[in-house]
Amino acid sequence: MYAEPIFLQPVFKDRIWGGTKLRDVFGYDIPSETTGECWGISAHPNGPSTILNGPLQGMTLDEAWQKHRGLFAGQEGNDFPLLVKILDAKTNLSVQVHPDDDYAQQEEDEPFGKTECWYVIDCEEGAELVYGHHAKSKSEFQRMVDDGEWDKLLRKVKIQPGDFVYVPNGTIHAIGAGTMILETQQSSDVTYRVYDYDRKDDQGNTRELHIKQSIEVAMIPHQDADFQPVEHKQDGLEIQKLIKESYFTVYHWNLNGKAENLENSMYLLVSVLDGEGEIETQSGASSFKKGDHFIIPSTVKKFSLTGKASFIASHSTK
Asked: Membrane spanning segments where (predicted)?
């Protein structure tokens, strides 16, 4: 029986809005001074993570999903369902929206749409997000886009470190400049851009917009999602269930000391935001540190954590 955590090598993405905080804060060996994304736990074909340890060392996460489904509670489906990223937004991301599963399958031949959520790791004072809009109908939305009334159309929200934001498919959104987040999402790379601040890439070209698709998939009028975090403590581990919805359940863990006999009924995706320590399973102890990403497979029924650290953990809800 496979009885140890599966540590993963992240994949990095250069982005027009990216910076160097993935190196400066987490110590990653980033490929450029405009590295915007760390795909920490990914089986997506655009950037699959590679397994760093154990019997499956050198295998991609997608290969492990296809060949060793018992590690993932025998969950059905051709595609690994979730993707975990850390994003460094040195400048504003484009204003965008993602489709639901049906639209992605029918229009893009992709297995998943994209519902996501963000944990704000850090941000500059006064940082904000675009979250939703003020249009009451699709015709009003179209008119405001045509007239360039972005300040009137877009709804902006102030943020601070530790905030959690749930972004269901259809939500108009954008991460603002000076923000670092951990994103848990469906394993999808389908994005429709609504507005990109008229900026140009290093070739002098503006990026493609997708106004038609955006209006087709956007939630109009906007409605905030209703959810309530739940907290409890087990030994030295403070556990905050940030959200449980139809695609994923996401937790913030704060470890100070030791927590024993933690149960794992599904399989857990774990990203270390800060600190260090050890995870102990029936096969022995493995050390972890800030910036590590690992999966606790479903074959590990119980585990213990020791150290001082904070994490975002998640699992598929289906």
From this structure: none
pLDDT of residue 66: 97
All residues at 6 or more sequence positions from 195 whose CB lies less than 8 Å from its CB, including other chains:
94, 95, 145, 150, 154, 209
268 vs 115: CA distance, rounded Å? 18
pLDDT for 265-277, tens place per residue?
Answer: 899 999 999 999 9
Which residue, among 247, 240, 249, 231, has the nearest Cα to 310 in the 3D structure?
240
Phi, psi of 120 (to 5 degrees): -80, 105
H or E segment and range at residue 206: none
Q: Are 311 and 252 in contact (CB under 8 A)?
A: yes
Predicted local distance difference test score (pLDDT) of residue 20: 98
Catalytic site positions: 193
- Where b means 16+ CB within 10 Å and e means fewer, 153-190 reads bbeeeebeeebbbbbbbbbbbbbbebbbbbbbbbbbbb
Provide CB contacts within 8 A for 68, sequence distance 6+. 2, 56
Give the confidence band of 195 by pLDDT, cuts at 50, 70, 90: very high
Distance CA 144, CA 129 (A): 19
Binning the chain into helix, strand and coil, the percentages to the nearest 5 are 15, 45, 40
Give pLDDT tens digits for 66-89.
Answer: 999 999 999 999 999 999 999 999
Examine the pLDDT at 205 and tell me if it is beyond 90.
no
Q: How many residues does the chain have?
A: 318
Q: How far apart are CA 36 and CA 30, in angstroms?
A: 10
Mention the CATH class of domain 230-316: mainly beta
- Spatial distance between the Cα atoms of 127 and 96, rounded to a whole number of angstroms: 18
Q: Where in the chain is the domain with CATH 2.60.120.10?
A: 6-217, 230-316
> Measured between alpha carbons, how far is 171 from 168 in angstroms, rounded to an integer?
6
> Mean pLDDT of all residues in the chain?
97
CATH topology for 6-217 is Jelly Rolls (2.60.120)
